[in-house]
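Input sequence (332 aa), recorded before submission:
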Amino acid sequence: MSEYKEIKLVKRPVKGQIDASLFSTEQKQVPMPGEGEILIRQTHMSLDPAMLGWMSEDRESYIPPVELGEVMRSSGVGEVIKSNHPDFSEGDKVMGMTGWREYLVSDGKGFNKLQPGISEEMALCVFALPGLTATTGLYKFGKPEAGETLIVTGAAGSVGSIVGQLAKADGLRVIGVVGSDEKADWIVNELGFDGAINYKTDNLKAQLDALTPNRIDVFFENTGGPVQQLIVNRMNEHGRIVVCGMIADYQSDTPSPGPNWIPLIKKRISIQGFAMPDHWGEIPQLLEKLTPYVQQGKIKYRAHIIEGLENAQSGLNMLFDGKNTGKMIVKL
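Predicted structure, token format:
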């Protein structure tokens, strides 16, 4: 019988650093599914910033950490190779929590079939965590209204790019904060954002003021960093701040100080942090909301593909170094 690879977490990150010593690669025999089970061959695996939190010894987070000795957690897309389950057939493409491994056996819970015409890349870039997170945060907590101004950090990332496009389709003025001129060009000229700020350039306040003549109503926060306080100070009364991620601080010994709270009082600004595990039960409604935008061609995406499960760790580091140019996906 043939073998497959799986990668387990064997050490916790120190000071947020991700290196090969944290993982152990094992060769195993491909298992056979039992009654009511399916055998899945994973073909595409998602890499996400949240993985650093999952590796860490944080028992108070929104999801328990990956235990040492367990297969590293991830979502992915695969093909059903053998089925003893009435709801799945051999050849079905399915998406769910797969882990860092080439094969897995499942009872089918948590796995959904890809609809015809949906590629593996589109599934992971749009209909998996990125699109679900963007839709939840924007509409449940951002409450956008046509004519308002929205700013999103990490705007070229998998979540931020969808947030901006949804808001633009709904008639908002949309500004994105990114980490390179290439990413700025992409979100403006390809995705249709009204403007972009490269946070690595000078005169951030002047750029922000020029791009937000009517100030800011909705702030979708993915990154943290120095631009955060400038954005908060630029917000309108009754503005909404949606806190989805703080990637700038995930590997920092000392997190950046937050904005002064006086503007929050003066302007009666609301702040809401959120995480998708609280909203798994809402996925059918979220997809119902998101799908028409995709069908109408209003959501574009790009994937950054790396080849081979053995390169997952280096690909994950690319996310924190800002070297990715799209949703990070490992093609197995």
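Checked by second reader. The radius of gyration is 20 Å.
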